[in-house]
Specification:
Distance between the termini: 34 Å
Strand content: 25-35%
CATH architecture of the largest domain: 3-Layer(aba) Sandwich
CATH topology of the largest domain: Rossmann fold
Number of strands: 20
Strand order of the largest sheet: 6-7-8-3-9-10
Largest sheet: 6 strands, mixed
Structural class: alpha+beta
CATH superfamily of the largest domain: P-loop containing nucleotide triphosphate hydrolases
Number of helices: 9
């Protein structure tokens, strides 16, 4: 379909900086998720790609053609908004056909393409319904069909499932991914939901304060976070603040070798990289509670310094509230001033498979 190139794009609103010097290449047919907390530049960047906002600096290219100053209607992009933005005075068919009519295409072609778009999103028999008669998920499908019918080179999705319930979100994101792969359309998807990004993306762009914090495929973002922020934003993570002296952590529960310069560090340990040893006497941790998720249990453990750990254990394990335990880390990453300074024994693919839902 198309290749998107973003070069040093920034956007300021007065003294406020929404996007700061973002550069990104999106390959032909790739689905990239822009992920991060709400209000930190993701949607603004998407709107600049679609032409709805003008960059303060930088350039945007589609197939090597500079579209930075091109209006939205002239760009080969299609955008699906969180609010759906459907016309309530039109039926479903005319919502989808509207853009084709503006292009003054023959009536027969408009009908054929609109019906194909409806079939693509699973709404073949809904053309005569008013949009107010549709559920939220159906309205979102119509919004997607309205963009796809124009055959854009690049599809832009701005948190399209944010207003839907969890089960509907999961079903629709699977459908969107299937459609995207079937069409091979280059896609950018904005979300603040980490599960959504992990399930959908070929690559994830983690954003913070308008900047890119890390870019990579989902498994690398999860297993190899480059900053403390990314480590905490993707998946569940335990953080243990400790002091390193002579290459050894001074934390009572995590007296681990950390071969870095002396000083304060933060140890980041995934719940699946921790195990618990039951002690007969006192332990460095106390079981607070155990939560059964069916496939596994998550045990909350309180440490003496007030830190609460989450530990993933097998579903047949048994934990008593108040029992003394010793947490043991099979892998960890050490951060100083938000940056990775040391990594020990990466978590095995088998352990991470539980997070990504594999056998």
């Amino acid at each position: 379909m198309a290749r998107l190139t973003i070069k040093g794009v920034s956007k300021s609103f007065g003294a406020s900086h929404a996007v700061r010097d973002v550069s990104l290449d999106v390959e032909d047919g790739e689905l990239v998720c822009l992920l991060g907390p709400s209000g930190l530049g993701k949607s603004t960047l998407l709107r600049m790609i679609g032409g709805f906002e003008a960059p303060t600096a930088g350039s945007i290219l589609i197939d090597a053609k500079d579209v930075t100053s091109m209006p939205p209607e002239k760009r080969p992009t299609g955008m699906v908004f969180q609010s759906h933005a459907l016309w309530t005075h039109m039926d479903v068919f005319n919502n989808i056909a509207f853009g084709l009519k503006l292009r003054r295409l023959p009536g027969a072609e408009i009908r054929e393409r609109a019906e194909q778009a409806l079939a693509l999103v699973g709404l073949a028999d809904y053309g005569k319904r008013m949009t107010t008669q549709l559920s939220g998920g159906q309205q979102q499908r119509v919004a997607l069909a309205r963009s796809l019918v124009l055959e854009p080179k690049i599809l832009l999705l701005d948190e399209p499932f944010a207003s839907l319930d969890q089960h509907l979100r999961e079903r629709l994101r699977e459908e969107v991914r299937d459609i995207q792969q079937r069409l091979g359309i280059t896609t950018l998807f904005v979300t603040h939901g980490q599960d959504e990004a992990l399930a959908l993306a070929d690559r994830i762009v983690v954003m913070r304060d308008g900047r890119t914090e890390q870019i990579g495929p989902p498994d690398r973002i999860y297993r190899e976070p480059e900053t403390e922020f990314v480590a905490g934003f993707i998946g569940s993570m335990n953080f243990i603040r400790t002091t390193v002296k002579g290459g050894l952590s001074q934390h009572a529960a995590f007296a681990l070798p950390v071969p870095v310069a002396d000083g304060e560090v933060v140890l980041a340990v995934r719940p699946e990289a921790l195990s618990l040893a039951v002690t007969k006497g006192t332990g460095t941790g106390i079981v607070h509670r155990s939560i059964d998720f069916g496939t596994h249990k998550v045990v909350d453990v309180d440490l003496a310094d007030g830190t609460r750990l989450k530990v993933m254990t097998s579903s047949d394990s048994d934990w008593t509230t108040g029992a003394p335990v010793e947490p043991v880390a099979a892998a960890f990453r050490a951060f100083r001033e938000n940056r990775l300074v040391y990594e020990f024994a990466p978590v095995s693919a088998r352990q991470n498979d539980r997070v990504f839902g594999h056998a």
